[in-house]
Design goal:
Number of helices: 4
Structural class: mainly alpha
Shape: elongated
Number of strands: 0
Distance between the termini: 62 Å
Largest sheet: none
Length: about 80
């Protein structure tokens, strides 16, 4: 982006009311975070991506257990089935 365009955007942002400026600022931070995260994900190997997906699924299941939406059995019962 050209420096003149960046300056124009900065001037416009300075004129926004504080609350709206804060919301725009948070949104821009989110976009930056999302882009940075995507850059990191793009550099991972397929194996690393699969491991991350498994970790994500484990956290999702833990959330379901906390919400009582996923039935669990005591570890002792599972071991007895082996």
């Amino acid at each position: 982006m050209a420096p003149a365009s960046i300056q124009h955007i900065n001037d416009k942002l300075k004129k926004l009311p504080d609350q709206l400026f804060n919301e725009v600022d948070q949104f821009l931070d989110f976009l930056y975070y999302k882009q940075a995260r995507q850059t990191v994900l793009d550099k991972l190997s397929e194996e690393q991506k699969e491991e991350l997906e498994q970790i994500k699924m484990a956290f999702e299941q833990a959330d379901l257990i906390k919400q009582g939406k996923l039935k669990t059995r005591p570890v002792e019962n599972l071991l007895n089935e082996l």
